[in-house]
Amino acid sequence: MPHASSNNSTLTNNGLNINPISSADTFTSQDDYNFNLSGRSSFDNNINAVNANSTQAQSLNSEDTMSTMSYDSTTGYGLVNAAAGVARGIGQNTFTDVADLGGNSWNVDMVKAPEVWARGYTGQDIIVAVIDTGVDYNHIDLQNNIWTNTREVANNNIDDDGNGYIDDIHGWNFVENSNDPIDRNGHGTHVSGTIAGENNGTGVTGIAYNSRIMPVKVLNDSGSGSISSITQGIYYAVNQGARVINLSLGSDFPNNSLASAIEYASSKGVVVVMAAGNNGLPILSYPASYANRWGLAVGAVDRNNQIADFSNTPGISQLAYVTAPGVGIYSSLPGNQYGSYNGTSMAAPHVAGVVALMLSANPSLTDAQVRQFMTQTAGNGGQNPDVGLSAGWLADEFIAEIARNPAKFSTVNFDDSAIAENQTIDLSANSSTPASSVDLFSNANINSQYRYYDSSLQTDNNNSPENDQTQDIQSILERFQQQMDELRQWFANP
């Protein structure tokens, strides 16, 4: 989810569908665009206007894995700390501080990655899938860290490994159904540089600079992607050996198939890192909201560890939410170029990199354990634990929204004919979807957000267009009821 950038130049599975989290990234160049599925984009160039499991181990509940003592409504568990998190993962105390790298690597210093490198953990042997607009796998800072499918023989037009994808040597392009996941947009390449840019004295050094990037292209060159492609990309990444998945994309509403894909990843020991969204609201987009059960949600802070005004925050929901640098992040762009972007899309890959460091130190860690260690060692950066959100503010916004748009709440359209099976959702700046504003309930028509069914689905043979949409609607209503119940508790226990 990029927001603004100063720019020098610009992923299938064996079965499901999903919805991308737009980029909360800001480009301070003419390449600004929205990764906007539903109006709650984290790749929104107008975002500044918004302001203001081995199974048992992975089923640890929030009481087991996260402490409310260090959690607040604005920064969640706070700034991710690689030194403390990786040390905890191998049963040690936090690692000793080392000298800062400085310059364009201030963000790497901020999450204390060099302290981990000094101990010999650099992401080696860990595959990180970047499910995005593709990756420029020829980039000088990435070409040596691109995943290679060693079970496939290149260019023989045979599916040598029998995974259903012919000649998928360096990932898959679900947009064009081809074996070339090249990035002609820039977003996926920028994300990849933050995770695994090579430590070669040139350009950018990634958080886990010896990890390997698996390019999974699910968004086209304009930033549009089908629900089916994104979900299939998750399954592909898991089944091909990724241990970490970065999702710098999203939407407003829940999706049953997306949730199933993330749960599948978690059950296989894969950690899914999800950008929180760029609306500046005290509620997370999807799939980041699924961090209440799996993976990690990531908000953006600046170099002073202040929450970015565009970053979505957890609000009244407690989940595995941490923060990472997401303002002015310098990284790779296609064509051996570099540029600085803003957004929760830029924050998420910092955390994906830290997870890769943790797994390189202790490959046996489960999703639940990574969630636990990451949240327990993060440093809450807010001066006041409850700065940023009050129950009164949220209630006022809710009431004001009803007053502004009374018809919206009485005429929500659940017509099931709006989106076809392989219709794409336009995430580009030219999309007809208006720029996001402080609107808690915009885009109530779920047809413009979710309509999916993958006829090649193998993981869940019970899915059908009708059943999936019914389950999604039920999820939306249940989520809304849960949040209203939590809001009432705030009033009852100020």
TrEMBL record:
Keywords of the record: Hydrolase, Protease, Serine protease
Keyword Endoplasmic reticulum among record annotations: no
Similarity comment: family membership: Belongs to the peptidase S8 family.
SUPFAM superfamilies noted in UniProt: Subtilisin-like (SSF52743)
Annotated active site: 132 (charge relay system), 187 (charge relay system), 345 (charge relay system)
Organism: Calothrix parietina FACHB-288
PANTHER family linked to this entry: CELL WALL-ASSOCIATED PROTEASE (PTHR43399:SF4), SUBTILISIN-RELATED (PTHR43399)
Protein name, per record: S8 family serine peptidase
Domain of life the protein comes from: Bacteria
Residue span(s) of domain Peptidase S8/S53: 123-384
